[in-house]
Amino acid sequence: MRFEPFLLDQWIERKFSPEWKIEHDFSASSGPSWTLGELLALGGEESIEQLLRTPIVYPSAAGCAELRSAVAELEGASPDDVQIVTGAQEGLLAIFFAAAEPGANVVLPHPGFAPFTAVPRSFGLEVRQYHLRPENQFAVDVEEVMKLADARTALVLVNSPHNPSGAVLAETDRRALHDFCAGRRIQFVCDQVFHPIFHGPGTSTAATLPNATIVGDFSKALCLTGLRVGWIIDRDHDRLETYRDARTYFTVSNSPITEWLAVLAVRHRDEVYARARDFSAANLQRIESSWSSTSEIAWVKPQGGFTVFPWLRGERDTRPLCERLGARGILAVPGDCFDMPSHMRIGFGTEPQRFGMGFDRLCEELEAYFAERHRQSHHLNQLEPIASDAERAIHVR
Ligand SMILES: Cc1ncc(COP(=O)(O)O)c(C=O)c1O
Protein backbone atom coordinates (compact mmCIF):
# COMPACT_ATOMS: atom_id res chain seq x y z
CA MET A 1 0.00 0.00 0.00
CA ARG A 2 1.37 3.42 -0.98
CA PHE A 3 0.17 7.00 -0.67
CA GLU A 4 0.56 9.21 -3.71
CA PRO A 5 2.88 12.18 -2.99
CA PHE A 6 1.15 14.84 -0.87
CA LEU A 7 2.19 17.74 -3.12
CA LEU A 8 0.63 20.44 -0.93
CA ASP A 9 2.40 19.43 2.25
CA GLN A 10 5.66 18.73 0.37
CA TRP A 11 5.48 22.27 -0.99
CA ILE A 12 4.68 23.88 2.38
CA GLU A 13 7.43 21.83 4.04
CA ARG A 14 9.97 23.69 1.91
CA LYS A 15 9.53 26.80 4.05
CA PHE A 16 11.28 24.93 6.87
CA SER A 17 14.32 24.16 4.70
CA PRO A 18 17.31 26.53 4.41
CA GLU A 19 16.72 26.69 0.64
CA TRP A 20 14.16 29.49 0.95
CA LYS A 21 13.88 32.38 3.37
CA ILE A 22 10.16 32.99 3.39
CA GLU A 23 9.17 36.49 4.46
CA HIS A 24 5.59 36.47 3.22
CA ASP A 25 3.73 33.23 3.71
CA PHE A 26 0.44 32.74 1.85
CA SER A 27 0.55 28.95 2.04
CA ALA A 28 -1.69 28.42 5.08
CA SER A 29 -5.41 27.71 4.85
CA SER A 30 -6.16 28.49 8.49
CA GLY A 31 -7.07 31.67 10.34
CA PRO A 32 -4.76 33.90 12.39
CA SER A 33 -2.66 31.88 14.82
CA TRP A 34 -2.72 32.25 18.60
CA THR A 35 0.19 31.89 21.02
CA LEU A 36 -0.27 29.75 24.10
CA GLY A 37 -0.08 32.93 26.20
CA GLU A 38 -2.83 34.66 24.20
CA LEU A 39 -5.09 31.62 24.45
CA LEU A 40 -4.55 31.23 28.19
CA ALA A 41 -5.19 34.95 28.69
CA LEU A 42 -8.72 34.42 27.35
CA GLY A 43 -9.39 32.20 30.36
CA GLY A 44 -8.01 34.64 32.94
CA GLU A 45 -5.39 34.05 35.65
CA GLU A 46 -6.82 30.87 37.07
CA SER A 47 -6.51 29.12 33.71
CA ILE A 48 -2.73 28.81 34.07
CA GLU A 49 -3.17 27.21 37.51
CA GLN A 50 -5.75 24.81 36.11
CA LEU A 51 -3.52 23.85 33.22
CA LEU A 52 -0.61 23.20 35.58
CA ARG A 53 -2.79 20.83 37.60
CA THR A 54 -3.66 18.72 34.51
CA PRO A 55 -2.40 15.15 34.96
CA ILE A 56 -0.40 14.00 31.95
CA VAL A 57 -2.15 10.67 31.39
CA TYR A 58 -4.03 8.95 28.56
CA PRO A 59 -7.43 10.58 28.20
CA SER A 60 -10.44 8.62 26.93
CA ALA A 61 -10.06 7.42 23.31
CA ALA A 62 -13.47 9.01 22.65
CA GLY A 63 -12.12 12.34 23.92
CA CYS A 64 -12.60 13.62 27.47
CA ALA A 65 -16.18 14.31 28.57
CA GLU A 66 -15.64 18.10 28.85
CA LEU A 67 -14.34 18.32 25.28
CA ARG A 68 -17.08 16.15 23.82
CA SER A 69 -19.68 18.29 25.58
CA ALA A 70 -18.01 21.50 24.37
CA VAL A 71 -17.96 20.28 20.74
CA ALA A 72 -21.54 19.01 21.08
CA GLU A 73 -22.64 22.44 22.29
CA LEU A 74 -20.76 24.14 19.44
CA GLU A 75 -22.44 21.92 16.85
CA GLY A 76 -25.86 21.54 18.47
CA ALA A 77 -25.34 17.78 18.84
CA SER A 78 -25.35 15.27 21.69
CA PRO A 79 -21.99 14.50 23.40
CA ASP A 80 -22.74 10.81 22.74
CA ASP A 81 -22.49 11.51 18.99
CA VAL A 82 -19.02 13.08 19.23
CA GLN A 83 -15.71 11.31 18.62
CA ILE A 84 -12.58 13.38 19.21
CA VAL A 85 -9.71 12.75 16.76
CA THR A 86 -6.15 13.94 16.19
CA GLY A 87 -7.02 16.65 13.66
CA ALA A 88 -9.67 16.35 10.98
CA GLN A 89 -7.00 14.45 9.07
CA GLU A 90 -7.35 11.48 11.42
CA GLY A 91 -11.12 11.79 11.13
CA LEU A 92 -10.88 11.44 7.34
CA LEU A 93 -8.47 8.53 7.70
CA ALA A 94 -10.89 6.67 9.98
CA ILE A 95 -13.87 7.41 7.71
CA PHE A 96 -12.16 6.15 4.52
CA PHE A 97 -10.69 3.21 6.38
CA ALA A 98 -14.17 2.14 7.47
CA ALA A 99 -15.56 2.68 3.94
CA ALA A 100 -12.90 0.51 2.28
CA GLU A 101 -14.91 -2.55 1.27
CA PRO A 102 -13.82 -4.46 -1.86
CA GLY A 103 -15.41 -2.99 -5.00
CA ALA A 104 -16.71 0.13 -3.24
CA ASN A 105 -16.38 3.66 -4.62
CA VAL A 106 -16.41 7.13 -3.07
CA VAL A 107 -17.69 10.39 -4.60
CA LEU A 108 -15.50 13.43 -3.94
CA PRO A 109 -14.94 17.03 -5.05
CA HIS A 110 -12.40 18.11 -7.68
CA PRO A 111 -10.47 20.21 -6.84
CA GLY A 112 -10.20 19.24 -3.20
CA PHE A 113 -7.97 18.74 -0.20
CA ALA A 114 -5.48 16.07 -1.39
CA PRO A 115 -6.19 13.42 1.31
CA PHE A 116 -9.81 13.25 0.06
CA THR A 117 -8.51 11.26 -2.92
CA ALA A 118 -5.07 10.00 -1.81
CA VAL A 119 -6.36 8.19 1.30
CA PRO A 120 -9.26 6.26 -0.32
CA ARG A 121 -7.09 5.36 -3.33
CA SER A 122 -4.46 3.93 -1.02
CA PHE A 123 -7.17 1.78 0.60
CA GLY A 124 -8.17 0.43 -2.83
CA LEU A 125 -11.41 2.41 -3.08
CA GLU A 126 -12.49 3.63 -6.51
CA VAL A 127 -12.45 7.43 -6.57
CA ARG A 128 -15.14 9.28 -8.53
CA GLN A 129 -14.93 13.05 -8.70
CA TYR A 130 -17.52 15.75 -9.32
CA HIS A 131 -16.22 19.05 -10.66
CA LEU A 132 -16.33 22.45 -9.04
CA ARG A 133 -15.85 24.71 -12.05
CA PRO A 134 -14.48 28.25 -11.79
CA GLU A 135 -16.89 29.37 -14.53
CA ASN A 136 -19.68 28.13 -12.26
CA GLN A 137 -18.28 29.90 -9.15
CA PHE A 138 -16.95 26.50 -7.96
CA ALA A 139 -20.53 25.50 -7.09
CA VAL A 140 -21.50 21.85 -6.57
CA ASP A 141 -23.60 20.48 -9.43
CA VAL A 142 -26.01 18.32 -7.45
CA GLU A 143 -27.12 16.36 -10.54
CA GLU A 144 -23.52 15.52 -11.39
CA VAL A 145 -22.94 14.14 -7.88
CA MET A 146 -26.12 12.07 -8.05
CA LYS A 147 -25.16 10.62 -11.43
CA LEU A 148 -21.78 9.46 -10.09
CA ALA A 149 -23.30 7.46 -7.23
CA ASP A 150 -24.44 3.87 -7.67
CA ALA A 151 -25.14 0.74 -5.63
CA ARG A 152 -21.40 0.40 -4.79
CA THR A 153 -21.01 3.95 -3.48
CA ALA A 154 -19.85 3.89 0.13
CA LEU A 155 -19.89 7.64 0.68
CA VAL A 156 -20.37 11.05 -0.87
CA LEU A 157 -18.21 13.81 0.58
CA VAL A 158 -18.81 17.55 0.44
CA ASN A 159 -16.50 20.25 1.79
CA SER A 160 -18.05 23.58 2.70
CA PRO A 161 -16.63 26.19 2.95
CA HIS A 162 -14.38 24.61 0.36
CA ASN A 163 -10.62 24.34 0.28
CA PRO A 164 -9.14 25.79 -1.96
CA SER A 165 -11.93 27.89 -3.58
CA GLY A 166 -13.86 29.16 -0.54
CA ALA A 167 -17.16 28.18 -2.22
CA VAL A 168 -20.09 27.50 0.11
CA LEU A 169 -22.60 24.73 -0.57
CA ALA A 170 -26.13 26.14 -0.43
CA GLU A 171 -28.30 24.61 2.31
CA THR A 172 -30.93 23.48 -0.20
CA ASP A 173 -28.31 21.63 -2.27
CA ARG A 174 -26.77 20.13 0.87
CA ARG A 175 -30.21 18.93 1.98
CA ALA A 176 -30.91 17.47 -1.48
CA LEU A 177 -27.65 15.50 -1.40
CA HIS A 178 -28.25 14.39 2.19
CA ASP A 179 -31.74 13.09 1.34
CA PHE A 180 -30.50 11.44 -1.86
CA CYS A 181 -27.77 9.61 0.11
CA ALA A 182 -30.06 8.71 3.02
CA GLY A 183 -32.56 7.17 0.57
CA ARG A 184 -29.83 4.93 -0.88
CA ARG A 185 -28.00 4.09 2.36
CA ILE A 186 -24.96 6.00 1.18
CA GLN A 187 -22.97 7.76 3.90
CA PHE A 188 -23.03 11.56 3.49
CA VAL A 189 -19.85 13.16 4.86
CA CYS A 190 -19.62 16.94 5.41
CA ASP A 191 -16.13 18.28 5.99
CA GLN A 192 -16.83 21.68 7.48
CA VAL A 193 -13.51 22.60 9.08
CA PHE A 194 -13.90 26.23 7.88
CA HIS A 195 -17.43 26.60 9.30
CA PRO A 196 -18.56 29.21 10.46
CA ILE A 197 -16.22 31.63 8.66
CA PHE A 198 -18.33 33.18 5.89
CA HIS A 199 -17.80 36.21 3.64
CA GLY A 200 -21.36 36.23 2.36
CA PRO A 201 -24.54 34.46 3.43
CA GLY A 202 -23.64 31.63 5.81
CA THR A 203 -25.23 28.26 6.42
CA SER A 204 -26.18 26.36 9.54
CA THR A 205 -23.89 23.54 10.67
CA ALA A 206 -24.41 20.31 8.75
CA ALA A 207 -24.77 18.63 12.16
CA THR A 208 -28.47 19.57 11.93
CA LEU A 209 -28.83 16.86 9.23
CA PRO A 210 -29.93 13.59 10.86
CA ASN A 211 -27.89 11.19 8.69
CA ALA A 212 -24.75 13.20 8.01
CA THR A 213 -21.25 12.46 9.27
CA ILE A 214 -19.56 15.72 10.25
CA VAL A 215 -15.82 16.37 10.20
CA GLY A 216 -14.67 19.45 12.12
CA ASP A 217 -11.54 20.68 13.82
CA PHE A 218 -9.69 23.27 15.89
CA SER A 219 -7.23 24.02 13.05
CA LYS A 220 -9.21 26.13 10.63
CA ALA A 221 -12.12 28.28 11.86
CA LEU A 222 -10.81 27.96 15.44
CA CYS A 223 -7.28 28.84 14.25
CA LEU A 224 -5.31 26.43 16.49
CA THR A 225 -3.53 24.23 13.96
CA GLY A 226 -0.87 23.09 16.41
CA LEU A 227 -3.37 21.59 18.88
CA ARG A 228 -4.00 18.72 16.43
CA VAL A 229 -7.54 18.24 17.70
CA GLY A 230 -10.58 17.54 15.54
CA TRP A 231 -13.89 15.74 15.74
CA ILE A 232 -16.38 13.49 13.99
CA ILE A 233 -20.08 13.78 14.75
CA ASP A 234 -22.30 10.87 13.78
CA ARG A 235 -25.68 9.75 15.09
CA ASP A 236 -24.96 6.28 13.73
CA HIS A 237 -23.29 4.71 16.77
CA ASP A 238 -22.07 1.62 14.91
CA ARG A 239 -20.05 3.89 12.66
CA LEU A 240 -18.88 5.96 15.62
CA GLU A 241 -17.68 2.81 17.36
CA THR A 242 -15.74 1.77 14.24
CA TYR A 243 -14.04 5.19 14.20
CA ARG A 244 -13.20 4.87 17.89
CA ASP A 245 -11.68 1.43 17.33
CA ALA A 246 -9.70 2.68 14.34
CA ARG A 247 -8.44 5.63 16.34
CA THR A 248 -7.18 3.47 19.18
CA TYR A 249 -4.93 1.82 16.57
CA PHE A 250 -3.95 5.06 14.81
CA THR A 251 -3.15 7.54 17.58
CA VAL A 252 -4.86 6.16 20.75
CA SER A 253 -5.99 9.57 21.97
CA ASN A 254 -5.02 13.22 22.16
CA SER A 255 -3.10 14.66 25.08
CA PRO A 256 -5.02 15.92 28.14
CA ILE A 257 -3.08 19.18 27.69
CA THR A 258 -4.33 19.81 24.16
CA GLU A 259 -7.83 18.64 25.08
CA TRP A 260 -7.87 21.10 27.97
CA LEU A 261 -6.76 23.94 25.68
CA ALA A 262 -9.40 22.92 23.13
CA VAL A 263 -12.14 23.22 25.77
CA LEU A 264 -10.84 26.68 26.66
CA ALA A 265 -10.96 27.68 22.98
CA VAL A 266 -14.59 26.55 22.63
CA ARG A 267 -15.55 28.54 25.73
CA HIS A 268 -13.97 31.63 24.15
CA ARG A 269 -14.95 30.91 20.55
CA ASP A 270 -16.62 34.28 20.08
CA GLU A 271 -13.26 36.06 20.48
CA VAL A 272 -11.49 33.49 18.30
CA TYR A 273 -14.07 33.67 15.49
CA ALA A 274 -14.29 37.48 15.71
CA ARG A 275 -10.54 37.89 15.16
CA ALA A 276 -10.59 35.39 12.28
CA ARG A 277 -13.57 37.11 10.64
CA ASP A 278 -12.22 40.66 11.08
CA PHE A 279 -8.79 39.80 9.72
CA SER A 280 -9.99 37.75 6.78
CA ALA A 281 -12.65 40.31 5.81
CA ALA A 282 -10.04 43.11 5.77
CA ASN A 283 -7.62 40.98 3.73
CA LEU A 284 -10.29 39.93 1.28
CA GLN A 285 -11.16 43.57 0.69
CA ARG A 286 -7.48 44.25 0.02
CA ILE A 287 -7.43 41.42 -2.55
CA GLU A 288 -10.61 42.66 -4.16
CA SER A 289 -9.35 46.20 -4.57
CA SER A 290 -6.18 44.96 -6.33
CA TRP A 291 -7.43 42.14 -8.44
CA SER A 292 -10.66 43.65 -9.69
CA SER A 293 -8.57 45.88 -11.98
CA THR A 294 -6.06 43.25 -13.21
CA SER A 295 -6.81 41.56 -16.49
CA GLU A 296 -4.19 38.80 -16.08
CA ILE A 297 -5.67 37.40 -12.84
CA ALA A 298 -9.11 35.85 -12.82
CA TRP A 299 -10.71 34.85 -9.52
CA VAL A 300 -13.93 33.94 -7.79
CA LYS A 301 -14.54 35.71 -4.50
CA PRO A 302 -14.51 33.12 -1.70
CA GLN A 303 -17.73 32.89 0.29
CA GLY A 304 -16.06 31.31 3.31
CA GLY A 305 -12.76 30.09 4.76
CA PHE A 306 -9.34 31.63 4.35
CA THR A 307 -8.17 30.76 0.83
CA VAL A 308 -8.69 32.09 -2.67
CA PHE A 309 -7.92 30.11 -5.82
CA PRO A 310 -7.21 32.53 -8.68
CA TRP A 311 -6.01 31.47 -12.11
CA LEU A 312 -3.60 33.30 -14.33
CA ARG A 313 -4.75 33.98 -17.87
CA GLY A 314 -2.48 32.41 -20.47
CA GLU A 315 -0.60 30.36 -17.84
CA ARG A 316 -0.80 26.58 -18.00
CA ASP A 317 1.26 25.79 -14.94
CA THR A 318 1.97 28.19 -12.06
CA ARG A 319 4.63 25.97 -10.44
CA PRO A 320 7.62 27.71 -12.14
CA LEU A 321 6.17 31.06 -11.08
CA CYS A 322 5.64 29.82 -7.51
CA GLU A 323 9.25 28.54 -7.49
CA ARG A 324 10.41 31.99 -8.55
CA LEU A 325 8.27 33.61 -5.85
CA GLY A 326 9.65 31.18 -3.25
CA ALA A 327 13.21 32.12 -4.18
CA ARG A 328 12.18 35.75 -3.59
CA GLY A 329 10.72 35.09 -0.13
CA ILE A 330 7.02 34.70 -1.05
CA LEU A 331 5.22 31.40 -0.51
CA ALA A 332 2.11 30.81 -2.64
CA VAL A 333 0.80 27.33 -3.42
CA PRO A 334 0.92 26.11 -7.05
CA GLY A 335 -2.39 24.85 -8.39
CA ASP A 336 -1.02 21.42 -9.28
CA CYS A 337 -1.28 20.63 -5.54
CA PHE A 338 -5.03 20.62 -6.28
CA ASP A 339 -4.74 19.11 -9.77
CA MET A 340 -5.51 22.51 -11.37
CA PRO A 341 -2.08 23.77 -12.47
CA SER A 342 -3.17 27.10 -13.98
CA HIS A 343 -4.38 28.20 -10.52
CA MET A 344 -2.60 29.32 -7.35
CA ARG A 345 -3.84 29.14 -3.77
CA ILE A 346 -3.41 32.24 -1.64
CA GLY A 347 -4.20 32.09 2.08
CA PHE A 348 -5.59 35.30 3.56
CA GLY A 349 -6.24 34.43 7.21
CA THR A 350 -3.31 36.37 8.69
CA GLU A 351 -2.97 39.69 10.52
CA PRO A 352 -3.96 42.47 8.05
CA GLN A 353 -0.94 44.74 8.32
CA ARG A 354 1.44 41.89 7.71
CA PHE A 355 -0.84 40.48 5.02
CA GLY A 356 -1.01 43.87 3.27
CA MET A 357 2.78 44.22 3.14
CA GLY A 358 3.16 40.72 1.74
CA PHE A 359 0.31 41.14 -0.70
CA ASP A 360 1.86 44.34 -2.12
CA ARG A 361 5.09 42.42 -2.68
CA LEU A 362 3.21 39.53 -4.28
CA CYS A 363 1.37 41.92 -6.63
CA GLU A 364 4.63 43.65 -7.59
CA GLU A 365 6.22 40.31 -8.39
CA LEU A 366 3.21 39.21 -10.43
CA GLU A 367 3.22 42.48 -12.38
CA ALA A 368 6.93 42.11 -13.13
CA TYR A 369 6.27 38.53 -14.25
CA PHE A 370 3.39 39.55 -16.52
CA ALA A 371 5.46 42.37 -18.02
CA GLU A 372 8.31 39.93 -18.75
CA ARG A 373 5.91 37.44 -20.26
CA HIS A 374 4.43 40.20 -22.39
CA ARG A 375 7.87 41.36 -23.57
CA GLN A 376 8.82 37.78 -24.40
CA SER A 377 5.72 37.11 -26.46
CA HIS A 378 6.09 40.47 -28.23
CA HIS A 379 9.68 39.59 -29.08
CA LEU A 380 8.61 36.16 -30.27
CA ASN A 381 5.91 37.63 -32.49
CA GLN A 382 8.52 39.83 -34.12
CA LEU A 383 10.80 36.84 -34.65
CA GLU A 384 7.97 34.69 -35.90
CA PRO A 385 8.39 35.13 -39.70
CA ILE A 386 12.03 34.05 -39.69
CA ALA A 387 12.45 31.93 -36.56
CA SER A 388 12.84 28.19 -36.80
CA ASP A 389 11.32 25.93 -34.12
CA ALA A 390 14.74 25.64 -32.51
CA GLU A 391 15.14 29.41 -32.32
CA ARG A 392 11.66 29.78 -30.89
CA ALA A 393 12.39 27.17 -28.24
CA ILE A 394 15.41 29.20 -27.11
CA HIS A 395 13.28 32.30 -26.69
CA VAL A 396 10.44 30.49 -24.99
CA ARG A 397 12.77 29.24 -22.27
C1 LIG B 1 -10.86 20.58 4.01
C2 LIG B 1 -9.87 20.11 5.03
N1 LIG B 1 -10.21 19.05 5.81
C3 LIG B 1 -9.37 18.58 6.75
C4 LIG B 1 -8.14 19.17 6.96
C5 LIG B 1 -7.22 18.60 8.03
O1 LIG B 1 -7.04 19.52 9.07
P1 LIG B 1 -6.48 19.15 10.50
O2 LIG B 1 -5.95 17.77 10.46
O3 LIG B 1 -5.44 20.18 10.77
O4 LIG B 1 -7.63 19.28 11.45
C6 LIG B 1 -7.75 20.25 6.16
C7 LIG B 1 -6.42 20.87 6.32
O5 LIG B 1 -5.98 21.69 5.55
C8 LIG B 1 -8.64 20.73 5.18
O6 LIG B 1 -8.34 21.78 4.40
Quick overview of this protein structure:
By secondary structure, this protein is of the alpha/beta class. The chain has helices spanning 7-13, 36-42, 45-52, 65-75, 87-99, 115-122, 142-148, 171-183, 237-250, 256-267, 269-291, 319-327, 352-383, 389-396, and strands at 24-25, 82-85, 105-110, 126-131, 153-159, 187-191, 212-217, 230-233, 297-298, 307-308, 311-312, 330-331, 333-334, 344-347.
Keywords, please?
397 residues, 3-stranded antiparallel sheet, single chain, 14 strands, Aspartate Aminotransferase, domain 2, binds pyridoxal-5'-phosphate, Aspartate Aminotransferase, domain 1, alpha/beta, 2 domains
In terms of per-residue confidence, which ranges show pLDDT below 50 for 5 or more consecutive residues? 386-397
Q: Supply the CATH architecture of the largest domain.
A: 3-Layer(aba) Sandwich
Biggest sheet: strands, sense, closure?
7 strands, mixed
The percentage helix is: 40-55%
**CATH H-level homologous superfamily name of the largest domain:** Type I PLP-dependent aspartate aminotransferase-like (Major domain)
- Report the end-to-end length measured between terminal Cα atoms: 39 Å
Number of domains: 2
The number of helical runs is 14
- Please report the first level of CATH classification, the CATH class of the largest domain: Alpha Beta
CATH topology of the largest domain: Aspartate Aminotransferase, domain 2
By helix and strand content, what is the structural category?
A: alpha/beta
DSSP strand tally: 14
The coarse overall form would be: globular
Bound molecules: pyridoxal-5'-phosphate
Mean pLDDT: 94
What percent strand? 5-15%
Strand order across the biggest sheet? 2-8-7-6-5-3-4
Radius of gyration: 22 Å
Order of helices and strands: HEHHHEHEHEHEHEEEHHHEEEHEEEHH
